[in-house]
């Protein structure tokens, strides 16, 4: 589908008919003086009177220097405002009642008491509208205006042609439709100019390229939004990168010429980039000449701006012997000098031309604020006129701060142009990024020459972010990200508020990118969290209205957005969003069925949910790289809600709540992801992307503590028999922190049976011996037992497939008979030991008499009825259940036979966390989760027991719903330092045995809030590859997400800090990067020579560790590594030290 063209004249027509840049305002009769809004927000805007109505005849005064695009735009605005005739002169006053002056008029500006545009920055303008006293009675009789004494004037005075064009764009935004359809112009004085010189985009992404038509439309969009820069750097263009030496074929050169011409018409600088670094010989005069010749060919087309892109190359090797001879051994400084020589030659060419802008360069080290030999080479050798592009503190930074920009300007020694990698999505496969342009500090214009956006593969979809780039580049000091995004939605929606709301909802599901937006679905997520909190606390809860709105949003967008290109590009995400929202609604129905006790309805809805999820995951966008993934919309929120809702249904039915999960410290080769290790299919496998190192792990999460039996770790495959772990240990854990070894292995297949009674949530295989071969893991299976140890065995006829599937706890597997049953056929489920059973439930189809066996005798308890049958047993002791088939009936299919036991504890209780640290005198809250083990609600009392003197809540009566649970906050306060146990007890009302769970509490001294290690002298045993930006000081700079310390790959590494004075250190807080310490010590010293162990951490899990210390007097604090958790070194974002208070 061809994209919708977005030209300045189309923009003007649309704005007059419907003010897209501004939110709707009340009718003129309802307000004394309407607010005037212009986007981008101008530097100065003052109201001057009430304004005036545009008559049918308007004068237009132009001059020999009038910009034709500005004139065309003004004419279009007047025409769409209802003006029937435009009386045009070339400098003389047309004596009309309303006159538009292009290129200013000093006399009129004086009478309006407005200063002209002289002295404004490039691209600046003055826009003034108001009334002046005509004062000439004789001339008034000959005027082409109404019989009043005043004439109205609109003056557009640009400091240059582009400024006049921007004045015309602003004029198009202030024209309003009043009551009765007449257009009005407010009395106004606007003095405006951009704070950044470069504003626009760089087409620098990988993946599916834009079409030629999309590029033309993009240039129109840039110009219509006061952006002046388009950098042509598509990675798919072979003549831009791989074939940079070769001239463009005539047809491609003609297309470039069309782009150059369209850009000029839109007041956009077409900046042509070449990326020669993969093969360039910097010392070769011939290569430099070919680089200049390529630029010269675009210069002949009208191009006057050029970039040398040296990103995404290896600058530690030369491409020719000549570079080795001229610059010496490859390395940072040599590469900086060699590249500078080539770019300087291009800059000399540009200077000789006389009308070419300063050359831009994308350096190989294009991010960060750490100095390096390479940056030193650029700083010292590159022509000072050259502008350096920089992406921020990282490739896709979450924030760009003024201090970072100032540091970058100092490090590179040149003007900085920010290449901002947003909303580019070539790295975010499956994502359409519609979040606000956030995280950029207002005032960046004080330190940079501009900012350009690297957009998405989706050209029209990128306009949501580009709108905000226009706002930020023009006037970053007043930029408000969300307000700007809402204006972009308003424009896209054609001013229709229901469409704006739908776009906002849709964009919320398409916000996350991991850096600027690290929270998934930030508007929906808190609503989902509140829903579960209310439901689990027994309060009324509903998400139905929210889900209905989300489900309706895609169709509202399809009907309400006129931009067909946007609809085409967003189609996959719109379709997927609608399917996921419908799945949410059906999942809500499943929860309603649970609340109503209707298992049959719940199962029917479950099938619909799974079908909708499967359809959502089958949706594909055809553009690479997004074609390899289904669209990710609201992932981590919507899909988790659906999964959690089905868990509630599964709990009510009495089947497995959720399947196990698996995680690993290894990376992945190709599509052989770690989930294949627990898919039950030994023919599939996980394949690591490196060799195993001591400390690497593969961990199975059973989702809840379970009794475990046989464990198998099956590694290697036929064509890579050596790909297995040479030395490893099997360990289990209830909480993921404390681990117990129960087996070892050094072969390709490891099989171990856990000791009887072993209860664990996590089972892991940990590498103890490094090896060269990589890891192939075909299957990691952990057999789980019923809580009582009761095993269920299935036998029966007629012949069919998968008898064990009838009792595997998985509703998506089933036993299916291969033929109609004959007389005497039955499906039997035998217990390994007799049990008291309250109810028997059967999920499946067929005609049968349901029977149970007690003391060797079979008796009927009812008939199989429909896809879900639940029969009351009245707490009988039985050892088998069987389904006696009706002969000749339809072939049965049984997904699950579920005996609901009545002899265990009626409820269970758990507390999160199971252990914690707190401070004396501070209220602390844990969560108590009470669940029922019966096929019915269970009532009882929850009480809390704690050491004497501790404050705990009073007992409360609760009713736990079947299949669900109650999550209750338990707040307690410990009055003194020490250790203690808080026990949460649930006592059932029927006299059954009470159940309880405990929290181990360590109570510490209070500590002061300030970090006394901040910016203090620091040192470490090593720095990864001696990289300056990973040195010890960056663990004490207060930045927990951008800078860090990283060590070499050895266990016995340390980092330490010297405090200002001897201090009683109360707490050390470590913010680990992904390469964390599994075992380590905190050590203290008075002199930095003799160290005393103060605390020890064993089997740490990364993230943030808080280590409280006993009373001491210390000047130095050290973290001494004992065992790394990964194959990398130790890596700390931040190490904080707090004094005891």
UniProtKB/TrEMBL annotation:
Residues in F5/8 type C domain copies: 643-785, 1000-1140
GO MF terms, alphabetically ordered: hexosaminidase activity
Chain spans, region Disordered: 131-150
Descriptive protein name: Hyaluronoglucosaminidase
Family: Belongs to the glycosyl hydrolase 84 family.
InterPro entries: FA58C, Galactose-bd-like_sf, GH, Glycosyl_Hydrolase_84, Hex-like_dom2, HEX_bac_N, O-GlcNAcase_cat
Signal peptide: 1-29
Location of the GH84 domain: 197-477
Ranges annotated as biased composition (Basic and acidic residues): 138-150
UniProt organism field: Sinosporangium siamense
Gene3D superfamilies: Chitobiase/beta-hexosaminidase domain 2-like (3.30.379.10), Galactose-binding domain-like (2.60.120.260), Glycosidases (3.20.20.80), Hyaluronidase post-catalytic domain-like (1.20.58.460)
GO biological process: carbohydrate derivative metabolic process; carbohydrate metabolic process
Superkingdom classification of source: Bacteria
Active site residues of this protein: 312 (proton donor)
Keywords: Glycosidase, Hydrolase, Signal
């Amino acid at each position: 589908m061809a994209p919708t063209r977005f030209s300045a004249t189309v923009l003007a027509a649309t704005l007059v008919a419907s003010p897209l840049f501004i939110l709707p305002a009340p009718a003129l009769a309802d307000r004394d003086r309407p607010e005037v809004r212009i986007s981008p927000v101008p530097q100065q805007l003052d109201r001057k009177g009430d304004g005036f109505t545009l008559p049918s005849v308007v004068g237009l005064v132009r001059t020999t220097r009038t910009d034709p695009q500005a004139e065309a735009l003004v004419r279009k605005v007047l025409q769409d405002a209802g003006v029937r005739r435009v009386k045009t002169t070339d400098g003389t006053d047309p004596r009309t009642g309303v006159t538009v002056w292009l290129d200013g008029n000093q006399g009129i500006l004086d009478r309006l008491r407005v200063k002209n545009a002289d002295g404004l920055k490039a691209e600046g303008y003055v826009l003034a509208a108001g009334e002046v006293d005509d004062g000439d009675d004789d001339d008034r009789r000959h005027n082409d205006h109404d019989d009043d004494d005043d004439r109205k004037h609109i003056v557009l005075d640009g400091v240059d042609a582009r400024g006049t064009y921007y004045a015309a764009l602003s004029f198009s935004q202030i024209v309003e439709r009043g009551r009765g359809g007449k257009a009005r112009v407010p009395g106004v004085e606007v003095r405006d100019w951009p704070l950044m010189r470069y504003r626009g985009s760089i087409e620098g992404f990988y993946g599916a390229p834009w079409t030629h038509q999309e590029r033309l439309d993009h240039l129109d969009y840039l110009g219509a939004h006061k952006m002046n820069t388009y950098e042509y750097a598509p990675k798919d263009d072979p003549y831009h990168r791989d074939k940079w030496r070769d001239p463009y074929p005539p047809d491609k050169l003609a297309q470039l010429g069309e782009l150059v011409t369209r850009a000029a018409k839109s007041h956009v600088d077409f900046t042509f980039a070449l990326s020669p670094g993969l093969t360039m010989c910097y010392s070769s005069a011939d290569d430099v000449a070919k680089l200049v010749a390529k630029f010269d060919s675009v210069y002949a087309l009208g191009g006057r701006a050029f970039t040398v892109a040296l990103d995404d190359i290896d600058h530690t090797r030369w491409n020719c012997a000549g570079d080795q001879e001229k610059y010496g051994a490859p390395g940072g400084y040599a590469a900086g000098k060699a590249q500078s020589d080539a770019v300087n030659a291009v800059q000399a060419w540009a200077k000789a031309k006389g009308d070419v802008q300063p050359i831009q360069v994308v350096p190989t080290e294009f991010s960060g604020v750490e100095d390096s030999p390479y940056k030193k080479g650029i700083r010292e050798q590159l022509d000072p006129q050259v502008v350096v592009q920089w992406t921020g503190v990282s490739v896709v930074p979450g924030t760009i701060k003024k201090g970072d920009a100032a540091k970058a300007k100092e490090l590179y020694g040149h003007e900085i142009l920010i290449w901002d990698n947003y909303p580019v999505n070539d790295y975010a496969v499956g994502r359409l990024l519609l979040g606000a342009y956030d995280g950029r500090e207002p005032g960046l214009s004080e330190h940079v020459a501009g900012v350009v956006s690297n957009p998405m593969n989706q050209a029209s979809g990128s306009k949501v972010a580009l709108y905000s780039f226009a706002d930020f580049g023009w006037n970053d000091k007043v930029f408000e990200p969300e307000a700007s995004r809402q204006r972009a939605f308003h424009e896209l929606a054609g001013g229709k508020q229901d469409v704006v709301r739908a776009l906002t909802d849709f964009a919320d599901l398409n916000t996350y990118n991991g850096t600027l937006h690290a929270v998934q679905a930030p508007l929906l997520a808190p609503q989902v969290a509140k829903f579960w909190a209310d439901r689990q606390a027994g309060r009324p809860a509903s998400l139905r209205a929210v889900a209905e709105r989300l489900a309706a949003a895609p169709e509202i967008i399809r009907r309400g957005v006129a931009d067909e290109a946007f609809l085409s590009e967003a189609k996959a995400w719109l379709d997927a969003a609608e399917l996921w929202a419908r799945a949410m609604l059906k999942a809500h129905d499943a929860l309603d069925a649970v609340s109503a006790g209707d298992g049959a309805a719940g199962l029917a809805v479950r099938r619909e949910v799974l079908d909708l999820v499967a359809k959502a995951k089958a949706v594909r966008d055809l553009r690479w790289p997004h074609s390899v993934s289904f669209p990710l919309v609201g992932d981590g929120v919507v899909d988790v809600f659906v999964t959690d809702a089905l868990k509630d249904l599964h709990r009510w039915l009495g089947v497995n709540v959720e399947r196990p999960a698996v995680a690993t410290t290894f990376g992945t080769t190709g599509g052989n992801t770690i989930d294949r290790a627990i898919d039950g299919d030994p023919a599939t496998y996980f394949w690591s992307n490196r060799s195993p190192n001591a400390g690497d792990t593969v961990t199975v999460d059973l989702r809840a503590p379970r009794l475990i039996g046989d464990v198998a770790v099956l590694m290697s495959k036929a064509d890579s028999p050596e790909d297995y772990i040479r030395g490893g240990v099997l360990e289990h854990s209830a909480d993921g922190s404390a681990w117990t070894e129960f087996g070892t292995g050094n072969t390709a297949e490891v099989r171990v049976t856990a000791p009887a009674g072993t209860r664990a949530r996590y089972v892991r295989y940990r590498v103890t011996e490094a090896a060269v071969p990589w890891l192939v893991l075909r299957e990691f299976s952990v057999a789980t037992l019923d809580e009582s140890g009761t095993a269920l065995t299935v036998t029966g006829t007629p012949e069919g497939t998968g008898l064990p599937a009838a009792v595997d706890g998985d509703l998506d597997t089933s036993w299916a008979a291969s033929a109609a049953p004959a007389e005497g056929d039955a499906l039997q489920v035998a217990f390994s030991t007799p049990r008291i059973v309250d109810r028997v439930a059967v999920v499946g189809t067929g005609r049968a008499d349901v029977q149970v066996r007690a003391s060797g005798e079979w008796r009927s308890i009812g008939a199989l009825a429909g896809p879900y049958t639940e029969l009351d047993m009245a707490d009988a002791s039985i050892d088998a259940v069987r389904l006696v088939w009706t002969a000749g009936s339809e072939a049965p299919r049984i997904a699950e036979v579920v005996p609901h036991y009545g002899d265990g504890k009626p409820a269970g209780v758990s507390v999160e966390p199971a252990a914690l640290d707190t401070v004396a005198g501070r209220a602390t809250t844990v969560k108590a989760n009470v669940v029922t083990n019966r096929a019915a609600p269970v009532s009882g009392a929850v009480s809390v027991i704690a050491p004497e003197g501790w404050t705990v809540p009073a007992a409360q009566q609760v009713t736990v719903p079947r299949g669900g649970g109650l999550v209750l906050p338990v707040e307690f306060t410990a009055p003194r330092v020490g250790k203690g146990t808080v026990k949460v007890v649930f006592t059932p009302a029927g006299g059954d045995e009470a159940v309880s769970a405990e929290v181990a509490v360590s109570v510490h001294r209070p500590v002061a809030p300030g970090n006394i290690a901040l910016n203090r002298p620091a040192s470490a045993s090593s720095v990864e590859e001696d990289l300056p930006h990973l040195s010890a000081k960056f663990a004490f700079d207060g930045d927990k997400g951008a800078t860090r310390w990283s060590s070499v790959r050895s266990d016995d590494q340390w980092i330490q800090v010297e405090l200002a004075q001897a201090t009683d250190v109360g707490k050390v807080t470590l913010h680990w990067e992904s390469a964390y310490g599994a075992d380590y010590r905190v050590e203290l010293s008075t002199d930095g020579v003799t160290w005393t162990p103060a605390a020890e951490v064993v089997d740490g899990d990364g993230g943030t560790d808080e280590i409280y210390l006993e009373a001491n007097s210390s000047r130095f604090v050290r973290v001494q590594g004992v065992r790394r958790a990964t194959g990398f070194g130790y890596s700390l974002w931040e190490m904080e030290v707090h004094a005891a208070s």
